[in-house]
Write a structure and sequence with these properties.
The protein is an alpha/beta fold. The chain has two domains: 2-210, Rossmann fold; 217-280, no CATH class. It contains eight helices and 13 strands. It has helices at residues 42-49, 90-100, 106-115, 129-142, 159-176, 187-193, 211-216, 267-277; strands at 2-13, 16-27, 31-35, 57-62, 75-78, 147-151, 179-183, 196-201, 204-210, 218-224, 233-240, 244-251, 261-263. Strand 8 (196-201) and strand 9 form a beta hairpin.
Amino acid sequence: MTALEATGLGKRYGDKWALKDVFLTVPEGRIIALVGPNGAGKTTLMNLTVGLRRPTTGQIHVFGRPPYGESLQHVAFVAQEKPLYPEFTVAETLRLGERLNPRFDQPAARTRLDELGIPLKSKIRALSGGQRAQVAITLAVAKRAELIVLDEPLANLDPLARHEVMEGLMAAVADTGMTVLLSSHVIAELNDVCDHLILVSGGRVQVAGDIEDIVHRHRLLVGPAGTAPAGPYDVVSERTTERQSTLLVRMRGPIHDPRWTVRDLALEDVVLGYMRARDSVHLPPPTIAGTEDVA
């Protein structure tokens, strides 16, 4: 089943398009990394996904339904600020979640926090940043939503807290089978957790799909300046000196040019290449996965 589908999706504020011409299809049960530079349109896409904004153009569906009205019970959202009432205890926070969400799983929430070593009697303001993030994610998981959207859940956390938050998130996904859309700038850690990528830049989705397939279809080409390698590819970004050109490309077939060296890339290399290019990159849609050899 499709978890998230956008068709011609766009959002305009005044005369400025924050997001434009978005076409997406994301299968259920995935952990999706949403990445891009600041101001790229990530927050707008998340707000449209959870029904906080209405699109100017196009449509968006979550599990086949627009994210409004009764459909909102199937979506959970954790904002970057993790807005919890600081004077509430953890137990009071869980009771509030239960009153606001008809399908809230109180026993599972208490069990999860107990396993994380977070006392129910503690006040929210007394918790560490990592513990507050865990409480916020626990509320979202206990809602028994089919899709959870997390806006920068790792922001302002130390490396150990980030690891614990991501480990807990993976365990929750394994237990529930839910779909997660996760916005973050910590690309290296996303590679270990996420299996799907949406990269937004300049208000457009530049690339989307399974991470393994995306990495497989991008290469770094290094060759003499003033020449172009022969072969089917789309240039994402380019650096040129007097003697040498370095191209980050999306491959559409093999490169057979002895003047050029073809190098493999990591996910971080691909993401940074698109982010450096900013909104100058408007590539044609990629071919369907598995239809060509890019080796």
